[in-house]
Amino acid sequence: MRSAVILTDGLGRTRYVSPLAERLDVVVDGHLESSEIRDMLNQVVVDGKVRDREIEMNMEAESGRITEREPVHLRARIGRIADIAVLGASDPDDMSTSGGADQLYAVFLEDISEQRNFERMRRDFVTNVSHELKTPAGAISLLAETVSDAADDPDAVRYFSGRISKESARLTELVQKLIALQKVQDDDGLSAVDSKPVDVLRVVREALDENKVQADAANIELRMYVGDDTVGVITTDGVADDAPTPSEGAAKVVVNGDADSIKTAVKNLVENAIHYSPKGTHVGVSVKQDDDDVRIRVIDQGIGIPAEAQSRIFERFYRVDPARSRATGGTGLGLSITKHIVQEAGGTISVWSRPGEGSTFTIRLPKAERSNTSKNQS
């Protein structure tokens, strides 16, 4: 059954607990532990009517060496199911002495935490889209009026026109990222026919090169590593200093997928790393492969991400520090887009971070089969 099942008497003493119910920690030492479930049971015992209720509990979850409590949403349904003889009663006299029968009740519990989290994300998405679109649109309207009022002041016109251009660019970026997010969510993933070999080293170099202007403006150095070796700092022509090239016999790092999409995923991570890193630091991207997969790591020396926020950073529009994100021009969509792109390519993305020590985002993609790579390249 999809639901967890508990059979109990009217006093909350359990007679049967399904394996799924055991994992929910609602039964302790053979008794119902949840006060809300016991309250529902008492009402059913009084009037015999089935009760339905949604309850929220805090369950212990292991996070490394730390035990944390996280909310779990359960849909509970309790009803009377049968009259059974009192356990141990072997004759009518014993049964009559004990009241004749013991009532059995069924407790059905369904974990709806994922559904509730999705509904919360959807509400947040609508709220955030409305807010994010309204902010630059309102600013553009206000600035346009100001320009009109300052028509006789060329310096003011130039200043406010620049502000309008900046807000317009922000609005355009937001719309483009919304379109990109919708696209990756609507796609069912690349088929085997559409999937092509992707040169990971070339894609990473291009992603770094496209972020170099931002990095230079923030006085942040970009570095690239292959395996355990540093291959140099990315230059403006997209090639790393002292970097091995195919003509020098460097081993290819190849995955199957869409090159533009994978480049976008890496570019988003590098862009975030630049935005949240202090001046004078560096952002590194390493590429390493083993027998099964290829790992792309983006490492920064930035402000870091609190542990409680790390499980939500891939949600649309979620920001650890909204004020700082708006100051740096972030839309809150980059990580969500990156996650969908990586999943489409059959990979995973994870994060390690500690406040004040920086963050490391790791993309794992399945390594391309040599036979398939050779066939597609031929």
UniProtKB/TrEMBL annotation:
Its cofactor is a divalent metal cation. Pfam families: HATPase_c, HisKA. It is an enzyme of class 2 (transferase). InterPro entries: BphY/WalK/GraS-like, HATPase_C_sf, HATPase_dom, His_kinase_dom, HisK_dim/P_dom, HisK_dim/P_sf, Sig_transdc_His_kin-like_C. GO terms for biological process: cellular response to phosphate starvation. It comes from the Bacteria. Residues 128-369 form the Histidine kinase domain. It catalyses: ATP + protein L-histidine = ADP + protein N-phospho-L-histidine. Gene3D superfamilies: 1.10.287.130, Histidine kinase-like ATPase, C-terminal domain. Keywords: Kinase, Membrane, Phosphoprotein, Transferase, Two-component regulatory system. One of its GO terms (molecular function) is phosphorelay sensor kinase activity. Its EC number is 2.7.13.3. It is found in: Cell membrane. Its main location: membrane. GO terms for cellular component: plasma membrane. This is Sensor-like histidine kinase SenX3. It comes from Bifidobacterium catulorum.
